[in-house]
Every structure is written in structure tokens, then in C-alpha cells.
Amino acid sequence: MSDEILYKEDAMDSWVCFFVCVLRTACRRAAKKDRAVLSLAQEYILKNRIEKAAAFLDKIDASEKQTAEFYRLRSLYLLKANRLEDAEEYHKKSIKKFPQDVFLLNNYGVLLVRLGDYAKACELFEKTLKISRNRSQSGLINYSRCLISKDDVKKASILIDQAKELGNLPYIGLLTELNLVLIQGNKFKASQINKIIQANTNYAQISEYKKEYECLSRHINASETDLTSSFLHSPSACIVPRYKT
């Protein structure tokens, strides 16, 4: 083989390597850009700025839209946007694609609670815990609420304690713990939790749990004024309509 041919082959290989390198660099940059856009979309979803979140989700590259991260954010966006029918269809599609995804399973359960299918929602929360080995804080909180609706206070309390080990409880977690300590008659602990809730002004803006907190507040007031329980239903009634199985 002549030196000229070898030179041409080496040159060809060099150009191939160069283009592969350029392509990989471009792909990495595109992936990095998509991750940044997804991060912004998530931020707007959590701040309930739905239109802004939608705009960023639309900017995501088609290939990135096949990732679990995108499916999680898209499903959460549809739920926050109150597009329940679209959300249900998308969650079914998501779980078919990612059947072991803890976030998607838990979120689908939250959606089913909104739709009134409490039994199926609780099944999904329980499945979430099995897959995550009790490492999903949201799953622990949500399934504990299912257990409260079944009057299994002992197990529900254990799950809330496990959720607290994973980090500070979100608003729904505090409401659930407040419910449990009221059922157990622990007035001091109920007062402590209520002070934490009242100290966070952001909680007052969450309308989804307004009625539940008002219901629990009536129980706190009753306990502080020594009213007998005959005037009120059990604190569990504050969430049972949402999780009745």
C-alpha cells in the first residue's frame, strides 16, 4: 500500500474523529442546556407559575422529552395546571414507560385522590413505599393518610416518624402529623405543630388544604377550651373524605 493511500486514510480517520468530537461536544452542550431549562421549568411549577413552566417545557429537545425527568415534570405540570383528564392520560403513559419510577407512581396517586379514586390511590402509595423501601417522604406521608382513614393510627404514626427522618415535613406532612397527635390526645404536641404551621405565611396561600386545616383548627380550639369530643367528629374526619377507601 502506497504512502499516499495511507496518508489519505489517516486524514480521513482524523476528520471522522474530529466530527465525532464536535458532535459529542454539541450533544453535551444541548443536554446541559436542556437540564438547565428543565430546572427552570421545575422552579416555576413549584412556584405555581404554570404558564412560565409550560413555556420552558416546550423548549425541551425531542430526545430529552423521552427521559424520566421530563415525564416527571410534565406530569406534575399537568396536575398543577388542573388539567386532570390530560394528567391522568399522561400519567398512565408515563408509568407504562417507567413502571418503577417512585415519583410518577406517587404523583399518580395524588392525582387519583383529586379524582376521587381513593382505593387505587392508596394502592399506588403503598407500591411507592415498597419500591423505594420506605425512602420516599411523599409516599410515607400519603400512605399514612390512607392508614388514618382506616383508623390504623399506630402504623400511620410510624410512617410519619420515618418521613421526618428524611427531612423537614412539608405542609401536608405537618397536617398529617397534627391529625395524628390530635387523635392521640397530645394537646402540647398539637399546639407545637400548629405554631410551626402558623409561622409559615406561605402555607396560608395553599388553598388545596384550607378546609383540612380549618377542620383541624376546630379540634385544637376544642381541646384548648376543654370541649368534649361529642361536639366534633374524630380528627380523622378532616381527611377521610379525601382518602376514604
UniProtKB/TrEMBL annotation:
Q: Which UniProt keywords apply?
A: Repeat, TPR repeat
Per its UniProt record, what InterPro entries does this chain match?
A: TPR-like_helical_dom_sf, TPR_2, TPR_rpt
Q: What is this protein called?
A: Tetratricopeptide repeat protein
Matching entries from Pfam families are given as: TPR_2
Positions of TPR repeats: 102-135
So which domain of life are we looking at? Bacteria
Biological source species: Marinomonas phaeophyticola
